[in-house]
Design a protein that fits this description.
Largest sheet: 10 strands, mixed
Distance between the termini: 25 Å
Oligomer: single chain
Radius of gyration: 19 Å
Strand content: over 45%
Number of helices: 4
Structural class: mainly beta
Length: 308
């Protein structure tokens, strides 16, 4: 691994620690470093989890070429998945995740990439449960497409994103939760902050197809702008093709309250420190709605570096 890559990853994890010993580093299709337990296999481009006891696993995507990975969680396995994306400029991560019946995955994804793209599809079978937290605080442009498909009855997906766009960065995220079976539940909470002529577009899409009675689709999309030179757009979409369902959406784009900035500066903070604190406070609701301790802990650590 290159020294530059290590310098980005080391503050987050230390692969030499025993308790963090299970990991996979995918830096190209032919360069893969792993340390896997007996019930986790990697073969023909597929990472297969067969564990029945809870397992914490680190997945690192790092390289200067497009990456492809399939991750398969077999029935009733339980995994805490911590991902770190360190993609080089113009690279694309193509990732497919499949959760078999009753599988439970709690995932946190830290994005440290350059100007890159991430295309991710997650498929959930009956009774599968997936909570995903995305920390999108990288110092560059980025395009993220995160799609979740509830393909089995009572499948459950909760997605939370915290996004920061600054210094003329152009970021676009499309988050989809599609209900393809009855009694499924989907919830997304997307929060963003834009400053310094940054651009941010969030498309939140909830789809309930015909016949999926008893399903619930909920979403919140909120963006705060620090000044008028920024561009922000929060687009909530609901496509509902059944009557016996619950669905809601909320979207808001607003300017920072100048009185808050003035008050913090009057208490001795510099403008930069005050803006950092306001950004942290605006993104914190993403953490507060998370009901998994692992995801919450990593989100809090990630947000604490805002503006550092």
């Amino acid at each position: 691994m290159q020294a530059q890559l290590l310098s980005k990853i080391k503050p987050i994890i230390d692969l030499q620690q025993d308790q963090l010993s299970y990991y996979m580093i995918l830096s190209s299709q032919s360069s893969i470093e792993t340390r896997l337990p007996q019930d986790v296999l990697f073969q023909d481009g597929v990472l297969m989890f067969q564990n029945k006891k809870p397992l914490t696993f680190y997945m690192i995507y790092a390289g200067d070429e497009d990456l492809h990975i399939d991750i398969h969680f077999q029935a009733y396995c339980q995994v805490n998945l911590i991902e770190i994306r360190v993609l080089s400029s113009n690279c694309t991560l193509h990732k497919t995740m499949k959760l078999d019946e009753g599988a439970t995955v709690h995932a946190f994804s830290e994005n440290l990439s350059e100007s890159a793209k991430s295309l991710e599809d997650v498929y959930l079978q009956a009774y599968a449960n997936c909570q995903y937290g995305y920390s999108e605080l990288l110092d560059d442009a980025f395009e993220g497409r995160y799609h979740f498909y509830l393909d089995g009855p009572e499948a459950n997906a909760k997605v939370r994103t915290a996004i920061l766009s600054k210094n003329q960065e152009n970021k676009h995220y499309e988050i989809l939760i599609q209900h393809n079976q009855p009694m499924t539940y989907g919830q997304m909470d997307n929060y963003g902050v834009v400053k310094d002529k940054g651009r941010l577009v969030i498309d939140g899409i909830g789809t309930i197809t015909k016949g999926q009675h008893g399903s619930s689709a909920h979403q919140t999309n909120k963006i705060m702008m620090f000044d008028e030179s920024c561009y922000a757009c929060a687009n909530p979409y609901l496509y509902i093709d059944d009557y016996d369902v619950q669905a809601s959406h909320a979207a808001a784009v607003g300017k920072m309250d100048e009185e808050h900035l003035y008050y913090l500066q009057s208490r001795g903070l510099t403008k930069k420190q005050a803006m950092q604190l306001i950004t942290y406070g605006y993104l914190m609701p993403v953490v507060e709605v998370i009901d998994n301790d692992m995801i919450k802990k990593h989100f809090e650590q990630s947000l604490s570096k805002v503006g550092a």
